[in-house]
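Let us work through a complete example step by step.
Step 1: write down the sequence.
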Amino acid sequence: MTEAKAHPFYAMHEHGFVRVATSTPHVRTADVVFNRDAVLAEARRAHEARVDLLVFPELCLSSYAIDDLHLQGAMIEAVEAAIADIVKASAELSPVLLIGAALMHKGRLYNCALAIAHGHLLGAVPKSYLPNYREFYEKRWFASGKGITGQMIRVNGHDVPFGTDLVFASEVLPHFRFFAEICEDFWAATPPSSLGALAGATILCNLSASNIVIGKSDERHMLCRSQSARTASAYVYCAAGHGESTTDLAWDGQGVIYELGDLLAESERFSLHPELCVADVDCERIVMDRLRIPTFNDAGEAAGRPDETFRTIPFRHAPHGGDIGLVRPVSRFPFVPDRAERLDADCYEAFNIQVDGLMRRLESTGAKSMVIGISGGLDSTHALIVAAKVCDRLRLPRTFIRGYTMPGFATSDDTKSNAWKLMRAVGITAEEIDIRPAATRMLEDIGHAFAGGEPVYDVTFENVQAGLRTDYLFRLASQHNGFVVGTGDLSELALGWCTYGVGDQMSHYAVNAGVPKTLIQYLIRWCARGDQFDAATDEVLLAILDTEISPELVPAGADGAIQSTEAKIGPYELNDFFLHHVMRFGQKPSKVAFLAWHAWRDTMAGSWPDGFPQDRKNQYDLATIRDWLEKFLRRFFAFSQFKRSAIPNGPKVSSGGALSPRGDWRAPSDASAAVWLAELDARVPEA
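Step 2: predict the structure and record it as tokens.
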């Protein structure tokens, strides 16, 4: 490892991740020695993969589908002997192992999940709900673990914790706390894992046999996704695979790992070879999400505070240190729909949230027009096509929309041309107001150097133009009994990239306020490539997407270069990434930088949103990410909140959040960014 990569920043464990895996090992029906060796082979493979927690199928030592053989004394003794061998071998392995085995206790046989770490059997969790319907007959062999709490069980001469009240907690990795349940427990109306999560477990594990029938895989996904979302946790599910008895049943060996409702990894089903399904679970993100959900704590109180009644079983283990990569999908565009199979539906939903919000505001005001400033840029374009859909749904003529293009000192021919093409294609009432005479008069009145012929293009020069445009729009709305549709977006609000008061920060209804720049770009592309508008509109939409993002307030330089927004404040794709992780989960700057580095360092790694243009695929090194993140933190925490504290109404669009002071984000306008900058400086290397 290079000296640079030895920095703690590159170690995923330093950022709250835990490497989790499911394993469907080779299995031979009722052959305990063969199955023991297969479990150990997979455990060693997981060790090489630097796994921290490895989950095996239910009853994997004996195999599941052996019917009355579970009750044979020779089988029971062989399983216990195999447990001793695995415990001994685990001393040299990094993963905590969760294996399935049947154990005797007080004259009863229990179907158990055994937690083994670093040479110790930590505890045994009995299955609570025993299926005894259709193809299942478990009550013939096993006793239910329901209600077993506070007990100990003797295994190979040692007393270990036994019960459904066990949460296993790492003494090495903060927030690495797991709970185990078994197969049918998950299908019950009240899964034991719900209490396990309320007791503090961040990772819920299911050791399952679960024969396969048509549609059952979808059902497992539904349950895992639902439980991980409802309990604000990770859910790790492992089913039995090839090698189980097929006397009456078949097995697919499905392993899935979910986190907060998101699928992280899934194994190959029906594989003839052992499957190791690996993903890095963000336990820190889980804990931070629970902090934001008072309902989670309320549920814990209603359940009798299981965090106080459950037993916490501490364990020590030997996780691999240093840079071991990051095995999980990290979306480059966390605000952008990226499910290819659901792309149209997701974009339709995002777009129509805005349409419905603006439509309701129009109905409530009784306005006779909607007034929009059309610049030929992304935000005003998107606001206009949303407004056009409002007119269509309310069966109003699109001439109900009054669009005004207002060229200033730096307006380019291209954007002005696009603005006119767009207004004509959409079919609205379109006009042009040249603001340069009024802006010149104002600059003269305040004694600005530009009025005296000097090329001074400061903030005042820019804001005179931005303010005049908004001033005109408000007066025009009054004149035409309408209201001003705001065009500013979520990314600009996050960065304070808007003119306060009489400027683009203000409107009567901010229809784009919940939509970040990256999502606006994607929604416009979706509209242009679908059947939302006619061919002429689609053509100009695509032309606008290809235009440099610029406020066009400062004239082009001698070299012809125009004012670039992203050169000043950073790439919107990075800023939106930063915003999502800071606003939605409260992630530390070093964690945000770590995730951004993994998401953006290589264009060839990971996935891109469906249909994303090849020539727009960028990559960034850590130094670049760190530099723009520092600027983001300054702008977001210490500069721009006063603008957000006074924003007009507008709809929330993404679960990633919004910045309305009446909604997701409340913050003081005079805060310091020192805490975030210090954390960034201390924990993220400069190169």
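Step 3: interpret the result. The mean pLDDT is 94.
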